[in-house]
Amino acid sequence: MADLKLFGSWASSYTHRVQLALKLKGLDFEYIEEDLANKSPSLLLHNPIYKKVPVLLHRARPVAESVIILHYLDETWPDVRPLLPAAPYDRALARFWCHFADDKLGPAVGAVFASPSEGQGAAVEQEVMKVKLVDPEAFPFFHSWLRDFEEHEEVKEIMPAIDRLLEYAGGVRQMMLSLSNQQQ
Ligand SMILES: N[C@@H](CCC(=O)N[C@@H](CS)C(=O)NCC(=O)O)C(=O)O
């Protein structure tokens, strides 16, 4: 039995985080792709509260929630490619931006995504999916950090092709719009 198993979804950025951490730390793991429209009994068993991916199993013990999984990996394998900086203040900053991404960025992108306006739909495709969300002039440091991040071999290996993501995102958007039309 593999020591580490990861239940994930190929288009999930929460899953990508954990895949990246595992890869950076050089840990072998078995990857189990979940169909989120038809979740497996194993996923529901291991994450009965949220029923979401990612879930990591370490020696058959489940850990859910991507950020909690990242902390778990870092605390279990602290010496190989630490995910957080050493200094407490720098760690606080990294945790702040991680929280910001989950608390503000994700929901903001989701809200634009679910908007019925055609103009906004086009904006989502252009700005979010073609990764122009971060304006280099307004946010030069964040923009250059993102470009550096994308250049890492480990990141390239994990991130799905943008066209595939775009097609998937378009399908999800259509589904959300038809659900919201049915409710009106
Ligand atoms: N806060 C969670 C979010 C995970 C999440 O939203 N996962 C999505 C895929 S991106 C999911 O499993 N969705 C299935 C559902 O909501 O039923 C984390 O950081 O792990």
TrEMBL record:
Catalysed conversion reaction: RX + glutathione = an S-substituted glutathione + a halide anion + H(+)
Main location, first listed in the record: cytoplasm
MF GO annotations: glutathione transferase activity
Subcellular localization(s) per the UniProt record: Cytoplasm, Cytosol
A Pfam family per the record: GST_N
Keyword annotations of the record: Cytoplasm, Transferase
Function of the protein: Is involved in the conjugation of reduced glutathione to a wide number of exogenous and endogenous hydrophobic electrophiles.
Protein name: Glutathione S-transferase
